[in-house]
Specification:
The complex is a heterotrimer of chains A (about 210), B (about 250) and C (about 90). Chain A is mostly beta strands and about 210 residues long. Chain A contains 2 helices and 11 strands; from the N terminus they run βββαββαββββββ. Chain A has one domain: Oxidoreductase, molybdopterin-binding domain (Sulfite Oxidase, Chain A, domain 2, Alpha-Beta Complex). The longest helix of chain A has 5 residues. Chain A is globular. The two termini of chain A are about 25 Å apart. The relative contact order of chain A is 0.19. Chain B has 2 domains: about 90 residues, Beta Barrel (Elongation Factor Tu (Ef-tu), domain 3); about 130 residues, Nucleotide-binding domain of ferredoxin-NADP reductase (FNR) module (Rossmann fold, 3-Layer(aba) Sandwich). Helices cover about 20% and strands about 30% of the residues of chain B. Chain B has 5 helices and 11 strands. Chain C is mostly beta strands. The longest helix of chain C has 5 residues. Chain C is globular. The chains are: A mainly beta (about 210), B alpha/beta (about 250), C mainly beta (about 90). Chains B and C meet through β3, β6 and β11 of B and β1 and α1 of C.
Chain lengths: ~210, ~250, ~90
C-alpha cells in the first residue's frame, strides 16, 4: 500500500494555470492528444466502410462513406475530457450531427430510449438516446482541419463531448437503438454507466 | 532449476536508492536496497510507481539490469525520454537516500538462466539491452559456458550502454561474442555494422536454425518486430523467440 | 503506429497483483480461435483505463482488467480454458 508515501519532488507533467473554472473537477490541461488503444487499429477501406442505424427502428438504414459526407457538415469546437484526467480545450472537429442521421429513420423515442454505438474491432459504448440528440453528438471525420487519423478513430468516430471521452467511440460503424440499457466495453468493467465529467462520474458507484 | 514459490499476490514495496551511475548521456543506473525483496531471475522487470503530494500517480515498467546473484540489491537502468513523465524524474531528480516504490519481480516468460542452456542469441535495440545485460551478468556470475552472441543496435558509439563492461566480458570469454551495429553515426575506423538490423545481418550473426538457439529480443516495438520477423524468415522456430517490446518510444 | 501494444509479459504486474501465481507462464485457450498460448506470448494493450490481453493469433480479447476504486474488474470470457502449473 502507498499509505502516505510521497515521491519527493515528483509533480508529473500536469500544468497548473489560470484555467481552473473551465476544467472539470480532477482534470488537468493537456496540450497533446494521447492515444489510448484497447486493441489493434482497424483499417477499413473507405469503399467498404458504412454507417448503420439498426435495432428498435422501423427500418434499418445504412450509408456509404460518400452518402454520409453528403449530409450537412457541422464544425463544432469543443472541450474534451478523458477519464484518465486529461482535458483539451477548443478542439476543432468536422462531422455530421447524429440528430441529422436519426432524422432519417423512424423510431418511437419512448421505446428506443438508449443507443449502443458499435465500432470496428468490437468496441461498444452505451448512451441515453437524449444524449445524442439536440446538437450534442456527431459522427466526426476531421480533426483540426485534417482527416481524422486512424489512431484517433479515423475514418470516423463518434463525438459526444459532454461526457467522458470513452463514450466518443473510435472507428464507429453505427448505432443500435434499444429499449433496455446495455453496458458497453468500459461500462461493464467498472466504469460509470453515464460519465458526466462535471459530476466526476468516472466509475460505478460515483 | 531452482523454483521459487511466489508469496501470494504482488504488492508494492519500498526501496532506498543506495547508488546512481551515469551510463551514457541519457541512461542512468539506479541501485536500490530492498528489504523485502524475494530475489528475481534475469530478464524480469519491476513496475515503478511515483506519487505526487496531491495523490497523482504515474507507473512505468523497468527491466532489472542486475543479476539475481546481487540480491537484495536491485539495479535498474533508465533511459531518459525528453517527453517522459517518469524517466526524467528517475534520471534527473532521484538521489541517494530517496525512497522508490516498486513491485516485482515480474514476468516469468522473458527470463534466461544458465540451466536453460543454449546456444543463446540476444538482440538488443537501444535501452532494450537492459534485461539482456542481466542475463549476461548472471551468465558470468555462475561461470556458464553456454555459447552466446549479442547483437546490439545503438545510435552512436556514445550511446552504447555498458560499453566497457561488454568489451571486458567479450574479451574474457571465448564462448561470448558481442556484435555492435551503430545506426546513425560511427567513429573513425569503425569496422562493425553500421545500419539498422535486417535479415542479412541476422543471418551472419545468428546461429543456423538447425542449432535451435534460444532467442531473446528487446527494444522499441518496430525494432523487435523487424528482428523477430527476420529470424522467422531465416527458419528459426517462433516458439524459441521471446520478445519484450518497449513501446513505440522505448518507455514501457 | 501509435498503439500502446506490448508483450503479454508487460501485463504480468497487473495480473500478479490479482492472481497469486506466475501468470505469464499460464496457458490460455482462446475462445475465439481455439489456439493455446502462454499469456507471456500474447499482446497486451495497456493504458490509463485498463489492460486488455489479446490472442496473438486472432486478436480476440482474452482478458480485460480495470483497477477501479480498490477493486479489480476482470473479464475473462475470451479464455475458454486456463492451464496453471500445480507445482509451486
Amino acid at each position: 500500500m502507498s499509505e502516505g508515501f510521497i515521491s519527493r519532488a515528483f509533480r508529473g507533467r500536469r500544468q497548473q494555470g489560470d484555467v481552473a473554472g473551465r476544467l472539470p473537477p480532477g482534470q488537468y490541461l493537456e496540450r497533446g492528444f494521447p492515444v489510448l488503444s484497447a486493441g489493434p487499429t482497424p483499417h477499413t477501406p473507405l469503399e467498404r466502410w458504412d454507417f448503420s442505424i439498426v435495432g428498435n427502428v422501423k427500418e434499418p438504414k445504412r450509408w456509404t462513406w460518400q452518402e454520409l459526407l453528403a449530409f450537412p457538415h457541422e464544425t463544432p469546437t469543443v472541450d474534451i475530457s478523458c477519464v484518465t484526467k486529461w482535458t483539451k480545450f477548443d478542439t476543432h472537429w468536422e462531422g455530421v450531427s447524429v440528430e441529422t442521421l436519426l432524422q432519417q429513420v423512424e423510431y418511437d423515442p419512448n421505446v428506443a430510449r438508449y443507443v449502443i454505438a458499435f465500432s470496428d474491432g468490437g468496441y461498444t459504448t452505451n448512451l441515453p438516446l437524449a444524449d445524442v440528440l439536440g446538437g450534442k453528438a456527431w459522427v466526426a471525420f476531421s480533426y483540426e482541419g485534417q482527416p481524422l487519423a486512424p489512431e484517433h478513430g479515423g475514418p470516423a468516430r463518434l463525438l459526444v463531448p459532454h461526457l467522458y471521452f470513452w463514450k466518443s467511440a473510435k472507428w464507429v460503424r453505427g448505432l443500435r437503438l434499444v429499449d433496455h440499457d446495455e453496458p458497453g466495453f468500459w461500462e461493464s468493467l467498472g466504469y460509470h454507466n453515464y460519465g458526466d465529467p462535471w459530476k466526476e462520474e468516472r466509475y460505478q458507484g460515483d | 532449476m531452482e523454483r521459487r514459490t511466489l508469496p501470494g499476490r504482488l504488492t508494492w514495496q519500498r526501496g532506498e536508492v543506495v547508488a546512481t551511475e551515469q551510463e551514457t548521456a541519457r541512461a542512468q543506473s539506479i541501485t536500490l536496497a530492498l528489504p523485502t525483496w524475494m530475489g528475481h531471475r534475469a530478464g524480469q522487470h519491476v513496475d515503478v510507481r511515483l506519487t505526487a503530494e496531491d495523490g497523482y500517480q504515474a507507473e512505468r515498467s523497468y527491466s532489472i539490469a542486475s543479476p539475481p546473484e546481487e540480491q537484495p540489491r536491485v539495479t535498474l537502468t533508465v533511459e531518459r525520454l525528453d517527453d517522459g513523465e517518469v524517466s526524467p524524474y528517475l534520471t534527473d531528480e532521484l538521489r541517494v537516500g530517496d525512497k522508490l516504490e516498486l513491485r516485482g519481480p515480474i514476468g516469468g516468460y522473458f527470463v534466461w538462466e544458465a540451466s536453460m542452456g543454449g546456444p543463446l542469441l540476444l538482440v538488443a535495440g537501444g535501452s532494450g539491452i537492459v534485461p539482456l545485460m542481466a542475463m549476461l551478468r548472471h551468465r558470468a556470475a555462475v561461470g556458464s559456458t553456454v555459447a552466446t552472441r549479442l547483437l546490439y543496435s545503438s545510435r552512436s558509439y556514445a550511446d552504447i550502454i555498458y560499453r566497457d563492461e561488454l568489451e571486458r566480458l567479450d574479451e574474457a570469454d571465448q564462448m561470448l561474442e558481442v556484435v555492435h551495429t551503430l545506426t546513425r553515426v560511427q567513429p573513425p575506423g569503425w569496422t562493425d555494422y553500421h545500419r539498422r538490423i535486417d535479415t542479412d545481418m541476422l543471418r551472419e550473426v545468428a546461429w543456423p536454425s538447425d542449432q535451435h538457439p534460444l532467442m531473446y529480443i528487446c527494444g522499441p516495438t518496430p525494432f523487435v518486430e523487424t528482428a523477430a520477423a527476420s529470424l522467422v524468415t531465416l527458419g528459426h522456430e517462433p516458439a524459441r523467440i521471446k520478445t519484450e517490446r518497449f513501446g513505440p518510444t522505448g518507455e514501457a | 503506429m501509435m498503439e500502446n501494444k506490448l508483450d503479454g509479459n508487460a501485463a504480468a504486474g497487473t495480473l500478479q497483483a490479482i492472481f497469486p501465481f506466475e501468470m505469464t507462464l499460464v496457458q490460455a485457450t482462446c475462445a475465439g480461435c481455439g489456439t493455446t498460448n502462454a499469456l507471456g506470448a500474447t499482446a497486451a494493450y495497456m493504458h490509463g483505463m485498463g489492460t486488455i490481453v489479446r490472442c496473438p493469433v486472432c486478436d480476440t480479447e482474452l482478458i480485460r482488467v480495470a483497477h477501479v476504486k480498490g477493486r479489480y474488474f476482470l473479464d475473462m470470457r475470451g479464455v475458454r480454458v486456463l492451464q496453471i502449473s500445480a507445482e509451486a
